[in-house]
């Protein structure tokens, strides 16, 4: 399946300059105005980069022969994970002088994916009325490692994508499928810090991450968060205190597990004849994490089990789930990474929830909230509104870090670029 798409949602109220500006570290803020927050990213000044010029030649003759592609009606679109590619809108290929061969040239910075393969897919675009899952090349996303200069990709539409080599750093234990009385069973992996085997008296804080299949390697999504590489480097350098990472995989029930309320999803988004009500299962997922998984992790590994040493994080719907857990299960989680959150869900449910939920000052989790500039102006506005709402509810500058990544898209490679800063927020030594 391609990347999850986000439907448009209503625009929320504008930001309040004085309140939001107090949340932002001076070293991050270059300027602030209502409706526009200008941030130097936590990644530091962006370096100069070379360009990659990708030339695609896609053979559609089999699709033409079977009638799956009608040149009088259809267009061939490229979608992907790094600007100028997007999962939400296509770059259109053009027919070449050879019948059935379509071409497209795209220029990207060679560091557009942070050194990871570029995840992409072609789609037959049919315009209004086409279901969101229709027209895509079958199977997993294709992946391409960018190199400076010119690259050419010549292939047919629809062949199986090659597996991305798994790059895993440090000691990672696979716990296998963990059963649950509350949600569907799922895979869990645990990254252990350098020195875990040697110092048998030491105990460690724990970070639980959603969508765990994308945390340590790129085989599931074509790109990954690179948490193992960032954590290994940070701990070995002495910049970060040692910690444990628990990567909790998602399943086909992801939309239900990670959303705090149910909403009626339009038929055109589902590609069905009628709308369906979906979502609202995050409380059950929370019971799995807190009542089943966390006790098992604390029993098996040398953890510090208290809330001050337990954090949770995720992106998109996973960011939404992390925000809900921070608001409603602050007794368990003392910090949360709310990454590119789907604030739009259910007519801005999480904004209403944050406005209505009281968390005692001593129990307020430390919160990282972020958004990528390439995720769209509405997504950025809503992320700012969330930070503003949290400030109104009592989160202080020491408790809340809000940042924007100007080059960030809604994809694993963009989140991977921000992971070192997230880990600094959670675990940097004084």
UniProtKB/TrEMBL annotation:
It holds the Pfam family Esterase. The keyword Hydrolase applies. Transmembrane segments: none annotated. Keywords: Hydrolase. InterPro entries: AB_hydrolase_fold, Esterase-like, Mycobacterial_A85_antigen. GO terms for molecular function: hydrolase activity. PANTHER family: ENTEROCHELIN ESTERASE-RELATED, FERRI-BACILLIBACTIN ESTERASE BESA. This is Alpha/beta hydrolase. It comes from Pelomonas baiyunensis.
